[in-house]
Structure formats: structure tokens, C-alpha cells
Design brief:
single chain; alpha+beta; Arc Repressor Mutant, subunit A; Nucleotidyltransferase, domain 5; 13 strands
Length: about 450
């Protein structure tokens, strides 16, 4: 006598309950499609739990019951195997070892590691579905991260490169001391090529404008730039610079929710393939310039050369280089740098000091109590003023040095003599009563 597992029998009973409703409706005169449509929905199983039954399952159960009766409703138990008839034993062992050492690694990343380390020969094609099934047979977790189902992430795409560039920051930790860092990525919307990246300690306006300037120097101007509402993107300085360069500046995801989806997908890819290995790693230099160099190498030689699903299997680098839209560069470097100079009006205190962003700058004498225009360069973060026809740089006040320096006693050569003040009544009376002994000529006569 064949022994049937209890759970298999319970599942068969539930399917029989659903099929019974279909057969009863057909006996009442409904056709199969009407009976199935009326049966689709929530059903209560023998354990008291609710189950949502789909139309496809009901058709499949109905066909099995017609052909085999109640035995046709028994779930089919598949023979489990841990081997792969497609992948070689050495390659499968390599994938399993890598997955155990790094549980978060994706299947495409495993295939790329196999190509780099020589486990996959040049020209050999390895299907990622095959690898995914083989890992599942080995009992390894290959599930994706859960995402919000109600998120508005409709897709859109601009037709040409540099029509829109997406910019966003990814926070992470790096080095043996787990220092905080942030990377700002500039992503072309059409070709998905990452144009540039800059790394800093925090998401500031200066870091954003530095990355924006270097992106323009590298690939030219974009028509529009999409950013979120971070503090480094919403400042008036950032808006003013992009206004002067005639670049459309779009904040937030309210009008363009699709852009947020593309950025989040790239951030997840960059995290899985590169950034997550930085934290606590003694081989990683936490210096911002070193991290920038690592990320640029990853973006140019790995991410840009990997076929992208949204591009029909083409590489981002190929799509960017073969786009018909011509790149538009600045007229000159000096002309471009002038667009990053902002002008701010401030009042000079009576001790020749002007304040900006919480820093006190010392100005030349002669401006006390007046309003002056500060020339703020957003690239080198310098402050300058126009003095005697030249732009001179201001520096923060050195209070310690000023405490020991001698005060100036002379006057400037170009300073006009001040007129004598009017005489008071007491002075007039004193000069009348105490007239000088000699006349203004010193007593000399003609």
C-alpha cells in the first residue's frame, strides 16, 4: 500500500473543494469559463487559512481531475538534484564557494568574477538563469530584495545623450576606521552611462558644483539636470550657477518619479558590485581622492562595459559613443569658470572686517562702514573684492597676529588732506587774547 504524505493529502482536499464548486456551477447550467470566473478568489482551506486561487490554477486542476480523478489533484513531488547538466563541476563549485563567502552577490556578478578569474573561457556563454537554478538546487538564497509595491516608478527615457543627467549621492563607509563618505554620481538618462563621480565627507553645495564642473569639462553641457532635495542641491548658490549656464534644474521626484527609480536601481547595482566592500576593509584607502579613483575605474571599465537590460542588451559606453546628438562644450575654460563666480553684497564693520558663512574676512583699510561686493568662487571657495581695479583675495582674520602687530601710523599717499574743523567760541577768544608775537610771515618784511 502506497503511503501518501499528509501535507500532500491536505493540498489535494483543498483543490477538490475548489473543483467541486466549478462542477456544481456547471451542473446548474453554466459553461466552464463562467464557472471558473465565478470561483476565482479567496477560499478557506481545511486549516482555516485564506488562500487566493487564480484562474490558471483552477483550469489546471479541472483538467487533471477530468483525466485522473482525485489522484490528479495530488501535488507532484519532483525529484531533487544538486547537480547541473549544463555547468561543469569546477565552475559550479566556484559559484557555490563565491556565494557562500559573499551571500549578497548577484548572479551576473558571479559570472563576471568567473570571467575575470579565468573559470569561464573567452567567448564562452553562461546563462544566468542556469546559474540561478543551480544555486537554488544547492539550497543557496538567490532572492531579490523586497520593494514597495505601491511605489510610482513608471518608466521614461529621453531620446538622446545629455538630454537629461541624473545626479544623486550614495552614503557609505570606507577604510579600516569606517569613515563616513558620500559619492555623487552623474548618470546620463538615455544611455545609462555614468559620466562622472566625486567623493566627499558630506553632501555639500561645493562638492556638487565641483562634480558638475568636472562633468562639463569631461563631456560637455547637458540640457537638464535632475537632483533630489538634499541640502547640497537646494541651496541658492547651486541654483544661481545652473541658471547662469542655462541648464534646467529639476528638484525632487514629484514630476519625474521615473528618474528616482533609475537612480535607486543604479545605487543598488553600485552597492552590490563595488561600494559594499569598502567598509572596514584595510586594503581600501579612505581618502576621498583615492575612493574617487576606484569608483571611476569601476564605472569606466566594468559598469559601462556590461550589457544593460534597459538598453536591449547593449553596453552603456557603446550607446553613449554612438548617439547622434553632438556634445556641446564651453567656449573657453576661463569663460566657464566665470559662471561659477557669485556676487554677494556685504557691509564692512568699522574694524575692517566682513562676515560670510560664519567666517570673518579682513579687508583693506578704507572700506569701514561701507557696502562692498564679494566675488565668491564656488570652485576654489575663495572670496575676492575689487580693490584699485584689481581682484584681491580676502583671508580670514588672524586674531593672534593682529594682537601683536604694530598699528599703522602713516597715511596712504593718495589720501587727500582733511580740511580743518571749524573754530569754537573758546578757541576764537583764546586767539584774540593771546595773539602770536610774530605775524604769519615770521616777522620778515618785504
Amino acid at each position: 500500500m502506497e503511503i501518501i504524505d499528509f501535507q500532500i493529502l491536505v493540498e489535494a482536499f483543498f483543490r477538490y473543494q475548489v473543483i467541486s464548486q466549478v462542477l456544481s456551477r456547471m451542473a446548474a447550467g453554466q459553461v466552464l469559463s463562467e464557472a471558473v470566473k465565478a470561483t476565482v478568489g479567496i477560499h478557506i482551506c481545511t486549516e482555516g487559512k485564506q488562500r487566493d486561487v487564480k484562474k490558471r490554477s483552477i483550469y489546471r486542476w479541472y483538467k487533471a481531475y477530468r483525466e485522473q480523478g482525485f489522484n490528479g489533484l495530488m501535488p507532484v513531488t519532483r525529484r531533487k538534484t544538486e547537480d547541473s547538466t549544463v555547468l561543469s563541476r569546477s565552475l559550479l563549485d566556484f559559484f557555490v564557494e563565491q556565494k557562500k563567502d559573499d551571500p549578497l552577490v548577484s548572479v551576473p556578478e558571479l559570472i563576471r568574477r568567473g570571467e575575470i578569474l579565468g573559470h569561464i573561457q573567452p567567448g564562452e556563454s553562461v546563462n544566468r538563469v542556469t546559474v540561478w537554478r543551480a544555486l537554488n538546487r544547492k539550497g543557496l538564497d538567490t532572492s531579490h530584495r523586497k520593494s514597495k509595491k505601491n511605489r510610482d516608478s513608471r518608466r521614461f527615457a529621453f531620446p538622446h545623450r545629455m538630454d537629461m543627467v541624473l545626479c544623486d549621492g550614495k552614503h557609505f563607509r570606507a577604510g579600516v576606521n569606517n569613515l563616513k563618505r558620500v559619492a555623487l554620481f552623474f548618470i546620463d538618462d538615455c544611455t545609462r552611462k555614468v559620466l562622472h563621480v566625486v567623493v566627499g565627507t558630506s553632501e555639500t553645495t561645493q562638492l556638487f558644483l565641483h562634480g558638475f564642473y568636472e562633468t562639463i569639462m569631461k563631456v560637455g553641457f547637458m540640457s537638464a539636470l535632475f537632483v533630489d532635495r538634499g541640502s547640497g542641491f537646494t541651496s541658492h548658490d547651486a541654483v544661481d550657477v545652473l541658471r547662469k549656464l542655462d541648464v534646467l534644474f529639476i528638484h525632487g521626484s514629484k514630476g519625474y518619479p521615473e528618474a528616482r527609480g533609475k537612480i535607486e536601481r543604479f545605487n543598488r547595482t553600485a552597492w552590490d558590485q563595488c561600494i559594499r566592500f569598502f567598509a572596514g576593509n584595510p586594503e581600501i584607502d579612505a581618502d576621498c581622492r583615492s575612493l574617487k579613483q576606484r569608483l571611476l575605474h569601476y564605472l569606466d571599465y566594468q559598469y559601462a562595459e556590461t550589457p544593460h537590460e534597459s538598453l536591449g542588451g547593449q553596453k552603456p559606453s557603446y550607446c553613449f559613443e554612438n548617439d547622434s546628438r553632438a556634445l556641446r562644450f564651453a567656449e573657453s575654460i576661463d569663460h566657464l569658470r566665470q559662471k561659477f563666480v557669485l556676487h554677494i553684497t556685504r557691509r564692512v564693520s568699522f574694524d575692517n572686517v566682513v562676515g560670510f558663512d560664519g567666517i570673518k574676512y579682513e579687508v583693506p583699510t578704507g572700506y569701514a562702514g561701507t557696502w562692498i561686493t564679494l566675488h565668491r568662487n564656488m570652485l576654489d571657495e575663495s572670496i575676492r573684492i575689487a580693490h584699485h581695479g584689481k581682484l584681491i583675495r580676502l583671508f580670514p582674520v588672524d586674531l593672534n597676529r593682529n594682537a601683536h602687530d604694530k598699528r599703522a601710523t602713516g597715511h596712504c599717499d593718495d589720501e587727500e588732506p582733511k580740511p580743518l574743523p571749524p573754530k569754537s567760541c573758546s578757541q576764537i577768544a583764546y586767539e584774540r587774547d593771546f595773539a602770536p608775537i610774530v605775524d604769519p610771515d615770521g616777522g620778515f618784511t618785504a
